[in-house]
Amino acid sequence: MRTGLILGIESSCDETAAAVVREGRETLSSIVASQIATHARYGGVVPELASREHLRNIMPVVRAALTEANITLDDLDAIAVTEGPGLAGALLVGISYAKSLAFPLNKPLIAINHLEGHIHAVLLEQAQIQGDALPLPAIALVVSGGHTHLYLARQQHKSWHYKNIGHTVDDAAGEAFDKVAKLLGLGYPGGPWIDALAPHGNPAAVPFSFAQIKPKVYRKETQRHNFSQQFFFSFSGIKTAVLRYVQTHEMAASIEARRSTLARIPNPRAADALPLCDEQTLGLIASFQRAVVEDLRRKTFQAAETFGAASILVSGGVAANRELRVRFTAEAADRGLPVAFPSLALSTDNAAMIAAAAWPKLLASEFASPELTAVASLPLGT
Ligand code: KG4
Ligand code: ZN
Q: Could you say which of 44, 295, 297, 374 has the lowest number of CB atoms within 10 Å?
């Protein structure tokens, strides 16, 4: 008898996660073991360390997810795991473990694209909150430390289809937050630090120009995908502009002082950094965040108009950003378009989104082969 219960496993980057979700809409458990403390001292994810941490965490995390859901492996209808994109070594830990559970138990294994998972973080919660889905088609902005992608998402006979209509040509938006935070002597990951400090600065202090976030578009790529250039993103230019600002305004000494003061505080937070930031620094932080959020907002709503979308959804770590939520919500209200974000817990990497994305695939009997392996740069959609 079908129970509708799917165990999701996620290990694509620096979180080891497992969750049990019923029929893509009811979360019975969602456990995330974060590796932030391991990678913080390096200012970014170290792939080798990530794989080791996943190996250490995978069994206890899966066990905790089953215990919290009050079920055993026998109760599951399927096991879902992230196939990619992500760090190959990290992905392989989750995939190998999922196989080792699925095959002896004779349970189907379902492979999930991490980006589709982020989209389903929103759909899962929408189903819980409203009892019915967002109007479709939707423009989905997946914006995280590794990705900045725009998709047109639609459903056909219960299956989901995605058309990739734009992406970053260099850094992801979250990567820019992380690099700028590091450059300014703040903590890792940088997004939450910048989010917390930006309201204390003047967002008009540094006039970043559109040219600094305008991608150099590759003609071949636009032709191949039949893309419109207007939906490409580029965030490496603005990062360089921040660096240049820091250099020309001789901010190096104050940055170093902040970095070393924070390094002496155990588990430092943005509140610890606030008294260490002068008006100029806070203005730079606020202006950077405003420029990135505005670029994301402009292109997402432009895409919604171009493709006649009935709603917008935003997911991935950067979707946790407060200014982004405020500005997207305001524009959506002006246009009369529904906009949805995941809760903060489901914005960043988790396994509930993987288990939720697997439900339509279980219904369609779309199962992975025993040869399933990690695909570090797995694309989503057409
Ligand atoms: O989705 P996620 O957990 O992992 C990836 O798939 O990359 O996203 C992590 C990214 C990091 O770059 C982090 O700085 C960013 O999301 N992030 C934020 C915020 N919270 C996390 N960026 C801006 N504002 C935030 N509040
Ligand atoms: Zn992610």
A: 44
Does residue 350 have its Cβ closer than 6 Å to ligand 1?
Answer: no
Q: Which atom of ligand 1 is nearest to the CA of 146?
A: 7
Q: Is the CB of 316 under 6 A from ligand 1?
A: yes
The reply to whether 122 and 213 lie within a common domain is: no
The model's pTM is 0.94
- Is the CB of residue 14 below 6 angstroms from any atom belonging to ligand 1? no
Atom of ligand 1 nearest to the CA of 86: 6
Residues 6 or more apart whose CB falls under 8 angstroms from that of 28 comprise 5, 19, 20, 21, 22, 68, 69, 70, 71
Neighbours of ion ligand 2 (CB under 5 A): 144, 349
Same-domain status, 149 and 233? yes
Residues 73 and 44 in one domain: yes
How do residues 191-232 score in pLDDT, each as one tens digit?
999 999 999 999 999 999 766 677 766 555 555 555 567 899
Asked if the structure places residue 55 within a domain, the reply is yes
Q: Is the CB of 360 under 6 A from ligand 1?
A: no
The enclosing domain of 30 has a CATH number of 3.30.420.40
- Inside any domain, residue 211: yes
Are 160 and 102 contained in the same domain? no
Number of domains forming the structure of the chain: 2
Task: Give the number of residues written for the chain.
Answer: 382
**Residue with CA closest to ligand 1 atom 22:** 191
Q: Are strands 78-84 and 109-113 parallel, antiparallel or unpaired?
A: parallel
Numbers of helices and strands, H then E, in the chain: 14, 10
Atom of ligand 1 nearest to the CA of 14: 4
CA pair distance 115, 144, nearest whole angstrom: 10
